[in-house]
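Lab channel / #folding
Pinned by the channel admin:
"Please post every new chain as: sequence first, then the structure tokens as a reply. Keep commentary short and put observations after the output so the thread stays searchable."

First post following the new format, from NK:
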Amino acid sequence: VQLVESGGGLVQPGGSLRLSCAASGIIFSLNDMGWYRQAPGRQRESVAAFTSDGNTYYASSVKGRFTISRDNVKNTLYLQMKSLEPEDTAVYYCHYVGPTGYDYWGQGTQVTVSS
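Reply from TO:
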């Protein structure tokens, strides 16, 4: 299993970014996948996810601003982020829970929101 994130960068407050996570080695459409983030000095937290029962989850801090989506043909997970705030600054990680419950992580992509 390999997860490769891209799309991070520096953006001004109020701006937008779209993160991508290219997945390989898994049956993408059936899997429990999502996005986490970790800011300096803070614990890693779940941001958005597709749950195994087909629902979506959003952290309250991003609800209405972030949208998770996926392309099952391209085996790619996305996170569209709008109205970005300085508090969204973090390293964003793609996450997948394998069939045995093992946690897989990407290498992370830095998102910095600053004027």
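NK: The chain is about 0% helix and 50% strand.
TO: also worth noting, The mean pLDDT is 93.
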